[in-house]
Task: structure prediction
Amino acid sequence: MKLKLLASFLVLITALDARAQATDLLGVFHSAESNDPVFAAARAVQQAGREKLPQGRALLLPTVNFAANSTMNTVATQFTGTVPQIFQSGTSRYNSNGYGVTLVQPLFRQQNWLAYSEAELLVVQSDAQFQIAGQDLLLRSAQVYFDVLIAQDNVQLSEAQKTANLEQLALAKRSFEVGSATITDTNEAQARHDLTYAQEVAAQNNLAVRRGALQQLTNTSPDEIKPLGGELNLSPPLPADLEKWLAEAQLHSPQLVIAQAADELAVKEVAKNRSANYPTVDLVANYITSNAAGSMYGVGVDNINRSIGVQLNVPIYQGGALNSKWREAEHNRERVRQELENARRSVAQQTRQAYLGVVSGIAQVKALQQALISSASVLESSKLGQEVGVRTNLDVLNAQQQLYSTRRDLYQAEYNYLLSQLQLKAAAGMLEEADLARVNQALH
Result:
C-alpha cells in the first residue's frame, strides 16, 4: 500500500514539474528574440543604417591623400643646328621618384552640410524600422503561440466530440436491437462519428503545422505550452477613449516617424539640388617631393614643393542637368508629402480597427460564454428528452455539435481578444515586452 502511495506521489510530482517546465508566452518571445532570422536581419539593417551618420560627418572633415611614384626614364636627345659643345646628342637612362601629401578641408560646401543633416534623418528612419521589427516580433510570437493553443484545443474538442458520438452510436445500436429506435438513428450516429474522426485527423495535422511555425520562429520545439487560464479578465482599453488612442498613434507610431523623416528628407533633397549651383570653397595644402638621378642634360634634380591656399570652384553650366535634378526633387517632394498623408490615415485606421477589436472582443467573449451555458443546457435537455421519447438521437447529436462548436468559438474569441490588445498598443506605437507579460499572466 505504501509503495502504491509513493508511486502515485512520484507521478503527481512529475506531472507538476512538467507543467512548471511548460513554455509560456514570454519564453516563446525570448527564444524568438534570440533565434528569429527576420528579427536578426532587422537588427543588422539598423546597425548598417546608423553608419550613415559618420559617413555624412566625413563630408565636413578634411581629406588627406598620399601618392608616390617611381619611374624609369629613357631620353634620346638629338641636337640640330649650331649648338655649344657642352650639349651632346645621345641617349640617357635614369630613375625618378616622388611622393606627395594633399590635404583638402571644405570651407563652404552647402551640399555637404545638407547631406550631413540627411544622414541624421536616415538614422532616425533605421531606428524606427527596428522598432517596427521589435513590435512585429512581439505580435508574431503571440500569434504563433495562440495558433498552437487553438490547434491543441481543436484536437481536444475533436477527441471529446468523437467520444460523445461513440456513446450515442452505441446507444443507437442498443435501441435498434431492442426495437425502440430505427436503423436511421444508427446511421446518423455512425455518420457523425465518421465526420468527427475526419475532423480529428484534420485538427491533428493543423496542430503539427502550427507547431512547425512555432519552431520556425524560435528554433525550438517545446513539448508543452501553457494554456489560457480558467477565468479571463476582460478589461476595456485604457484609456477607454478612441480619440486619445488616435492622438497617441499620431505622436508615437513608428510608421509615422518614418514617413515624417522621409518628408524632411525630401525637403532637404530639394535644397541640396538647388545648392548644386552654389560655389564651393576649399582649403588645399600640398607637400610634394621628387628626385631624378638624371635628365636630358645629364644631371640629377631634387625638388620639394610646399603649398597652401584657398580654392574656389563655381559651376557655370552643366548642360541643364542641375536644373533638371532640382525639378525632379520638387516632384519627389510632392510624392512624399502625399505618402505622409496616406501614412497618417493608415495609422488612424489601424488604431481604430484595433480599438474596436478589443471592445467587440469583450462583447463577443461574453456572448459566447453565455451561449456555452445555453448550449450545455440544450444538450442536457435533449438527452433527458431522448430518454422519455420526446427527442431523437439526431437532436442529441445536433446539440452536441452545437456545444463543441460554441466552445471552439469561445476559445478563438478569447485568443483574438488578447491579440487585439497587443495590436492596439502596436498601432499606437507603444507595444513593449511588459504588455506581453501582462497577457502572459492570463496563462496557467
